[in-house]
Amino acid sequence: MADNLIQRTMSAYAYPLLIKNLLQAPVIDDPQQQIVYRDQMRFTYAEFRQRVCRLANALTEIGVKPGDTVAVMDYDSHRYLECFYAVPMLGAVLHTANVRLSPEQILYTIDHAEDDYILVNEEFLPILEQIKGRIDTVKGYILLQDGQQQPETSLRFEGEYEALLDAAEDHFEFADFDEHTRATTFYTTGTTGLPKGVYFSHRQLVLHTLGVLAALGTPAEQGRFHQQDVYMPITPMFHVHAWGVPYVATALGVKQVYPGKYAPDTLLKLIAKEKVTFSHCVPTILHLLMSHPLFAETDLSNWKVIIGGAALPQAMCKAGLEKGIDIFTGYGMSETCPILTLAQITEKDLEIDDEVELRCKTGRPIALVELRVVEENLEEVPRDGESVGEIVVRAPWLTQGYLKDQRNSEQLWRGGYLHTGDVAHRNKQNYVKITDRIKDVIKIGGEWISSLELEDLLCAHSTVGEAAVIGLPDDKWGERPLALVVKKNNTEVSEKELLQHIRSFIDKGIISKEVVLLKIQFVESIDKTSVGKINKKALREKYQNS
């Protein structure tokens, strides 16, 4: 009896957690659902599956094999989505190249990842022209283009993307292999040193997809992502797989809309035309949308949007709610695949200010995420909503380290937890609130001041469009805060008025009295990283003598 039981167990199929298996349900359940690229392309999920197979055949034909690395340099497109699947399903590694880095940094990432082939949008050919003589590993290029005109370039192509797909068979038998096989690589845009390679396996991406599916699919209303939604990313697909949500959207089988190159009018028109109901973006992009004339004319009452990458200002959140947008925070980082927490609300009948405060918190951990807020010795701080420490995490989808970088990998995972570098507190309801990055906390006379809190208070003033607060060296106090402020269009305000605005919060005990040292400087724009985050390292260097 026992032998028969063992025999039956051994003959069972050991289902591997491979990206190919995320394609099962949508193709079977709703093959007529659409995938849209701007106003240029529209096809069904059934055709999407065929196109993934055609791409796999085309890549195999030019020489891509398991273990190779295939880079993509493109805007958010149907092509990118097809690469999300076809490349790792072949057993190759997808390198989502950050096209917003400098040419020298892009060259570094191509060589460091040991790219074998590059799929490149014609708009990025000038970058490759600058560095082509120094690229050591690449064997071939595939051209990505929206028009028909042949671009002027000295690069030789294996072919043009659509032509290669047209010539390929629409069926491909994707083999099973070890679910721990590396599926993707991309490079962090840290503000210090060279970009660091982050990598994820099939297993990690599938588990992240399932974890986010559960987190977004279970709420009754607020922050819910379901099969009747229409999805459009407004986060670059080169950045942490567009937060992993394209995998979630495809697993759900929802209509998907890919906007290509970001432009506020294009994004708002697509939301209106395609009836987009679910997106995600950084505060910088939402600020651009809110500042565009079309924003006032566009019905956004059915739009749900996760804000991440930087703190969501309460003033922006309130403006979004007044427009009818279901706006809320999500949190993660390149190294975490990325989603760790979501600010979904279970409380009922909240006052607007209380609701805004909850939506702007970092959120609560999603299933399978072990999140702790700790002191340097990894002892957890009290969950009192005040005691601060560093966020450290464990989850089944976190990167195992940095590519070819043992020293920084060990530092990332010291003590058996992934160290985020984010300072936060947590309350009894398990809501986490990031107060700053460890390196961005301003230390005035032994007191720690949150730059994020100061930015939020400044943005609450009706004339402030954007604000960034940095700490500058000071002989007496150690550091002193400098606020860089961008005024809203057609508004006027003085430094004195903004300082009085901040002093009102000091008088109420909301912020430390040391903030009276604050200096304000008005600027036309604030330096950002390639993914739209405020670049405080660059700002500290730029304004060090202010």
In short:
This protein is an alpha/beta fold.
Topology:
Elements: H1 2-11, H2 24-29, E1 34-37, E2 41-44, H3 45-62, E3 69-73, H4 78-89, E4 93-96, H5 103-113, E5 117-121, H6 125-131, E6 140-144, E7 157-160, H7 161-166, E8 182-187, E9 197-201, H8 202-217, E10 230-231, H9 240-243, H10 245-252, E11 255-258, H11 264-274, E12 278-281, H12 283-291, H13 293-297, E13 304-307, H14 314-322, E14 326-332, E15 339-342, H15 352-360, E16 364-365, E17 370-374, E18 389-394, H16 406-412, E19 418-426, E20 432-437, E21 442-444, E22 447-449, H17 451-459, E23 464-474, E24 478-487, H18 495-507, E25 519-522, H19 536-542
Parallel strand pairs: 1-11, 3-4, 3-5, 4-8, 5-6, 6-7, 10-11, 12-13, 13-14, 24-25
Antiparallel strand pairs: 1-2, 8-9, 14-15, 15-16, 17-18, 18-19, 19-20, 21-22, 23-24
Helix pairs in contact: 3-4, 8-10, 14-15
Radius of gyration over alpha carbons?
24 Å
Name the strands of the widest sheet in spatial order: 7-6-5-3-4-8-9
Tell me what portion of residues adopts beta-strand conformation.
Answer: 15-25%
Look at the structure and give the CATH class of the domain at 17-195.
Answer: Alpha Beta
Name of the CATH homologous superfamily of the domain at 17-195:
ANL, N-terminal domain
CATH architecture of the domain at 17-195: 3-Layer(aba) Sandwich
Mean pLDDT: 93
Based on Cα principal axes, name the global outline: globular
Low-confidence sequence ranges: none
Number of helices: 19
CATH topology type of the domain at 17-195: Rossmann fold
Task: Give a short account of the largest sheet.
Answer: 7 strands, mixed
Report the strand count: 25
Percent of residues in helical segments? Answer: 25-40%
